[in-house]
Amino acid sequence: MGSLEQGYGKTVVLKNINLTVNSGEILALIGPSGAGKTTLVSTIMGMLKPMKGDVTVLNTAMPNRQLLAKIGFMAQTDALYESLTAQENLMFFGSMQGIARKQLREKIPHAANIVNLVPDLKKYVKDYSGGMKRRLSLAIALVSDPEILILDEPTVGIDPELRQQIWNELHKLAKAGRTILLTTHVMEDAEEADEVMMIRNGAAIAQGTPEQLISEYDVHSVEEVFLKAGRQQDAHTNND
Ligand SMILES: Nc1ncnc2c1ncn2[C@@H]1O[C@H](COP(=O)(O)OP(=O)(O)O)[C@@H](O)[C@H]1O
Ligand SMILES: [Mg+2]
User: What residues does the ABC transporter domain cover (predicted)?
Assistant: First the structure.
């Protein structure tokens, strides 16, 4: 990605973002609510045109229709068909990703199992809880086994045990060469990632592997890195 600037109308929300996700790697965008994570993810997906800079995915400029079929995307807001069952949603969105129906029927149990939804596949989504909808959205992103996963807050509303199960799966997928970009405001998630980019007030305040950052900032946890980098950002802003 070329140095990116993004915003809404005349308001600049993101400045000077330089982000590269390597294949086989999990990159976590971490930052508090309102930091600009969803704006960045929507820009990468080609849903928003950058004010400045450009986005390239697999050496192709975004937006690009063919490429979208290779991306498993989970939006922050669940976009599901409430009047269909979970199974039917998975069939529908999987077909949109270009997977044959027969193949999908074989793949759905695996995707549903990752998020513990196998017993609830025949239920209508309108009868799902918020957490179940989040899990179904994640299963939809996973079902076509895409080369790239872009997940906006995939762990929100997910209990700790299942969260670990999901992380195990993400690590497995990365090992198999998949590229994963996710957003989170939870520091435990950042500790699981190979690379983190910390975003605060629309700027990247720290970037690197969790180990690198902990050593560079001379602290003991990713959370302390965030706090220290945040104080440095404030000091810098006050001097301007
Ligand atoms: N559609 C929009 N129009 C105007 N401002 C927006 C819009 N979406 C988000 N914003 C603003 O952009 C900033 C970043 O929001 P967002 O990217 O959603 O942050 P995050 O995902 O990190 O919580 C916030 O100040 C938010 O109010
Ligand atoms: Mg968001």
Answer: 1-226
